[in-house]
Amino acid sequence: MKQKSLGKKVILGIAILSFFLFVVFMLTSYFKSKNSTVLCETCNTCSWNVSVFDIIPILVTLAIMIGAGAYYFMSQKIESKQENLKKNTSVILKLMNADEKKLIEILVNNNGKALQAQLTRLPGMNKVKSHRIVKKLIERGVIKIEKYGKTNFITLNDEIKEGLL
């Protein structure tokens, strides 16, 4: 949680710094044009003569401000979604029995993937029991099966994987 708030503070600092630079570049450009007596070539009435090199830093700082602001506000939405996902995952795990939790622990320890044969070697498990537990978890949408030769790869569902890993 501290890491997330630190990231927000850094982004907010970047936005404030880029806003300061934007103001400095605008004022520099404005005062430079006020000291200049050259008139515009197109209308010959205004006295603000701005070159392309004066506009580039202004546009860059404006783009940085917009990007930092968008990231700041979008990160809040992403964080709230991740928190909801973790809450939902913890509720799902509370509803599982001890054998199902063992199976999920093995999957979590192996980055969300394990061979079905590896699951049958767990203490207190046999082929029939592990097969029944796998079928229950597939029906609930917690795991998926991928064929791998004569055995199967058991993988966590993507949403649950994000919540647990």
Give your account of this protein's structure.
By secondary structure, this protein is mostly helical. It folds into two domains: about 1-85; about 95-165, Arc Repressor Mutant, subunit A. The chain has six helices and three strands, in the order αααβααββα. A three-stranded antiparallel β-sheet has the order 1-3-2. The relative contact order is 0.09. The model has no long low-confidence stretch (mean pLDDT about 75).
Strand order of the largest sheet: 1-3-2
Measured distance between first and last alpha carbons: 16 Å
Taking Cα atoms only, what radius of gyration do you get, to the nearest Å? 29 Å
Structural class: mainly alpha
Please give the domain count.
2
Query: How much helix is in the residues?
Result: 55-70%
* β-strand amount: 5-15%
Q: What's the total count of β strands?
A: 3
Q: Which terms would index this structure?
A:
165 residues; mainly alpha; Arc Repressor Mutant, subunit A; 2 domains; 3-stranded antiparallel sheet
Quick structural summary:
The protein is mainly α. It has helices spanning 2-35, 52-94, 98-109, 116-120, 127-140, 158-164; strands at 113-115, 143-148, 151-156.
